[in-house]
UniProtKB/TrEMBL annotation:
The keyword tRNA processing does not apply. GO terms for molecular function: iron-sulfur cluster binding; metal ion binding; molybdopterin cofactor binding; oxidoreductase activity. It holds the Pfam family Molybdopterin. Belongs to the prokaryotic molybdopterin-containing oxidoreductase family. This is Molybdopterin oxidoreductase. Keywords: Iron, Iron-sulfur, Metal-binding. The keyword Acyltransferase does not apply. SMART domains: Molybdop_Fe4S4. It comes from Sphaerotilus natans subsp. natans DSM 6575. Residues 5-64 form the 4Fe-4S Mo/W bis-MGD-type domain. InterPro entries: Asp_de-COase-like_dom_sf, MoPterin_dinucl-bd_dom, Mopterin_OxRdtase, Mopterin_OxRdtase_4Fe-4S_dom, Prok_Mopterin_Oxidored, YoaE_C.
Length: 685
């Protein structure tokens, strides 16, 4: 047996709060990666990887990896390509982009998200390229901007508790998160707390495996979290479970005086009606929050994918400020930790907004891609989108209202370039597919939105075939375009050095075990000091006013006429063994998920004559998709759970759950409302 002789420090690149520290073992003789493990010494990773990422080598060595540039030879969407050389690809792409840019560079749109969360293979050389070009800018809203903007307005930044301190909490409220599936390494700390006697409460319309393991589950209607938060405040006030000293010292006084009036009307009975909960369950939760020191909330992004998601986050974020839970390091709230990295990340040095040279291109919202690809030029829109360059994202599968997204990408007059590992649904629509490296094949740096460490990812193996890092692809494209600024020659090492500053430098990271923890106080807001202008938590936000309950776009209560035709609310949280649409093509993982499913409550199934396993059609005016019915009390009556996000071509009849989602946006942050949807379900013909 050959013994691996080399280990490489790595970081998990996926869009997940855990950002694990990994160790990659490489067989020295063959140069092949033979094993990927979690680093035992890294506190949050603690030696454990999820099922998906422990199979990362299977993904890298997948026989269907794209390993040469591919030129389209069939109709758009057919996925028919022929191999080409890099020189041919770059010359053709540069020629097309130059011609467009000569007319109007804003006709060119970058489209990317967090396929890798790496600071280098994400927005570094790519951002320089599009800034220099003067292309349209992209507002990256598809995941977290409702909650993120709300949190930043309330606390002054995307900051919160340190995740490891949840292990000491006495009460943990898991709010809008299926932690076991999507934040596994937080769950480990929650388990420690549970073993030490803590109470765990889950707030989720779906009875997830996480909910099963909590002491209480508030199975509310989707999009009603704001009403619940208002009723909790009502109870905190009514029972005087308030930390008056903390409020006086650290909370926006006028805002609280006004909000305190508003919550008077939000009795538990009123919220119970809106949320579909039992008023006593709301009272019990308020009592727990108001009387347990070391009460912690793990808020997550699942609850903000609805019209009122931003306001709900503003309200929930206030709860630990009213009870003074922040006084203890195991109390408070964590939605995102990404704001803690502001002092060590030099985004301007990495992305070079100065290359815009005074131009101010329009910004398009990535969540309305379907509409925007179908728009003609107009004075308020600007030029028609004539080219899209996609990297680190699979919009045909993940963007809302797929029918329009597909129709847009099918346009014969749209020039599409996709940097990818695989022929995804989006790559199938490309004029050119360019082979990108995976995390095992390139250098990168990572910060996190769930913990507070900066991680190093060293390349473990040579790139397969002709694959290149995103950075190198944009470097070569810049050269082909004739961009001669010296910053387009910066190597990945140079980019890495430019990216970090202050307490964490690239040199220090290279000399570290593979990560450096930010120096953050144990109980960061015990004495207030929120990163707002005056250090106080903000309730009344200029331009927004006081936070309030904002009802869903689509629900039985808020859209009764629509609900007469489409009576079921649908949410579409991720399937556990996929990461968004990544890993759907890894057979061992797809085999665990077996087929796309919609969970439906036994009463709703019976009313429609559906049995478990039946092939069903889920539909509304926007579209329909096929999947198997899973009759289960994991679904609330009146709510169906369409687990995502399948590749269309690997699902049933070439569609997925985003056929029925819409492009209306959240109250704050211009984000999509994936979990704010009405549908009907019927047996499929
Ligand atoms: N295995 C796995 N892990 C992932 C991902 C994945 O696809 N697969 N995705 C990653 C990404 S991109 C992200 S953004 C994070 C997301 O991580 P989280 O923010 O934790 O989101 P989800 O796990 O999607 O959890 C969403 C939960 O919210 C519930 N939910 C839906 N609507 C509502 C509502 O109106 N109110 C409340 N209270 N709950 C609601 C859903 O039923 C679901 O259980 O996870 C990351 N981790
Ligand atoms: N209905 C519904 N829709 C949703 C959601 C939902 O819960 N329900 N969740 C939403 C959320 S939270 C998010 S974050 C978005 C996610 O949407 P996306 O960001 O599009 O995420 P993925 O589907 O994982 O696609 C990422 C792609 O990037 C590629 N990739 C990975 N690394 C690299 C690299 O280094 N270079 C290049 N060139 N490519 C790379 C992968 O192969 C993969 O195809 O989806 C959203 N869509
Ligand atoms: Mo996300």
């Amino acid at each position: 047996m050959s013994i691996p002789t080399r280990t490489v420090r790595a970081a998990c690149p996926h869009d997940c709060p855990d950002t694990c520290a990994m160790q990659v073992s490489v067989d020295d003789a063959s140069g092949r990666v033979v094993r990927i493990q979690g680093r035992a010494e890294h506190v949050t990773t603690h030696g454990a990887l999820c099922t998906k990422v422990s199979r990362y080598a299977e993904r890298t060595y997948h026989p269907e990896r794209v390993l040469t540039p591919l030129r389209r030879v069939g109709p758009k969407g057919a996925g028919q390509f022929e191999p080409a050389t890099w020189d041919e690809a770059l010359a053709d792409i540069a020629g097309r982009l130059k011609a467009l840019a000569a007319r109007d560079p804003e006709a060119i749109l970058p489209y990317s998200y967090a396929g890798t969360m790496g600071l280098l293979q994400g927005e570094s050389m790519s951002a320089r390229f599009f800034n220099r070009l003067g292309a349209s800018q992209l507002d990256r809203t598809i995941c977290a901007s409702a909650g993120g903007d709300a949190l930043a307005a309330t606390y002054g930044g995307k900051v919160g508790m340190l995740v490891r301190h949840f292990a000491e909490s006495r009460l943990i409220v898991i709010w809008g998160s299926h932690s076991i599936a999507s934040n596994l390494h937080f769950w480990t700390f929650a388990q420690q707390a549970k073993r030490a006697g803590a109470k765990l409460v889950c707030i989720d319309p779906r009875r997830t495996e996480t909910a099963d393991k909590c002491h209480a589950h508030l199975q509310l209607r989707p999009g009603t979290d704001g009403a619940l938060a208002l009723a909790l405040m009502h109870e905190l006030v009514a029972n005087d479970w308030l930390d008056h000293d903390y409020i006086a010292a650290h909370v926006d006084a006028a805002g609280w005086a006004a909000l305190r009036e508003r919550v008077k009307a939000w009795t538990p009975e009123r919220a119970a009606e809106v949320c579909g909960l039992d008023a006593d369950a709301i009272r019990a939760l308020a009592r727990d929050l108001g009387t347990t020191p070391q009460a912690a909330i793990r808020l997550n992004y699942g609850m903000q994918r609805v019209r009122g998601g931003g306001n709900a986050v503003r309200l929930i974020a206030l709860l630990p400020c009213l009870t003074g839970a922040w006084r203890h390091r195991a109390g408070g709230l964590l939605l995102s930790s990404s704001g803690w990295f502001a002092s060590v990340r030099d985004d301007a040095a990495r992305q070079r907004p100065d290359l815009l040279a005074g131009r101010r291109p329009r910004t398009l919202n990535m969540s309305t891609l379907g509409d925007d690809l179908l728009r003609e030029a107009s004075p308020d829109f600007g030029p028609k989108v004539e080219a899209v360059i996609v990297y680190n994202s699979n919009p045909v599968a993940v963007a809302p209202e797929s029918a329009k997204v597909v129709q847009g990408f099918a346009r014969d007059d749209l020039f599409t370039v996709v940097l990818e590992h695989f022929l995804t649904d989006t790559a199938d629509h490309a004029d050119w597919v360019l082979p990108a490296t995976t995390q095992l094949e390139h250098l990168d740096l990572h910060t996190s939105y769930g913990h507070t460490d900066v991680l190093l990812n060293e390349p473990a193996m040579a790139p397969l075939g002709q694959a290149l890092p995103n950075t190198e692809i944009f470097r070569r494209l810049a050269a082909a375009m004739g961009f001669d600024e010296p910053c387009f020659q910066d190597s990945d090492e140079t980019l890495a050095a430019q990216t970090l500053r202050g307490a964490v430098t690239f040199e220090a990271l290279k000399a570290s075990p593979g990560w450096i923890s930010l120096p953050i106080p144990d109980a960061p807001f015990a004495d207030g000091g929120f990163p707002t202008a005056d250090g106080r938590v903000r309730i009344d936000v200029p331009g927004w006013g006081l936070p309030d309950f904002v009802p869903p776009w689509e629900s039985v209560a808020s859209a009764p006429e629509l609900a007469a035709r489409y009576p079921l609310a649908m949410i579409s949280p991720p399937a556990r063994n996929f990461l968004n649409s990544t890993f759907v093509n890894v057979k061992s993982l797809r085999d665990i998920e077996a087929e796309p499913v919609v969970e439906i409550h036994p009463d709703d199934a019976a009313a429609r004559g559906l049995h478990d396993g039946a092939l069903v059609r889920v539909f509304n005016d926007r579209g329909s998709y096929h999947c198997a019915a899973r009759v289960s009390t994991r679904a609330r009556p009146g709510v169906v759970n369409g687990l995502g996000i399948w590749w269309r071509k690997l699902g049933l009849r070439g569609t997925n759950v985003n056929e029925v989602t819409h492009q209306k946006l959240t109250d704050i942050g211009q984000a999509p409302c994936f979990y704010d949807v009405l549908v009907e379900v019927e047996a499929a013909a």
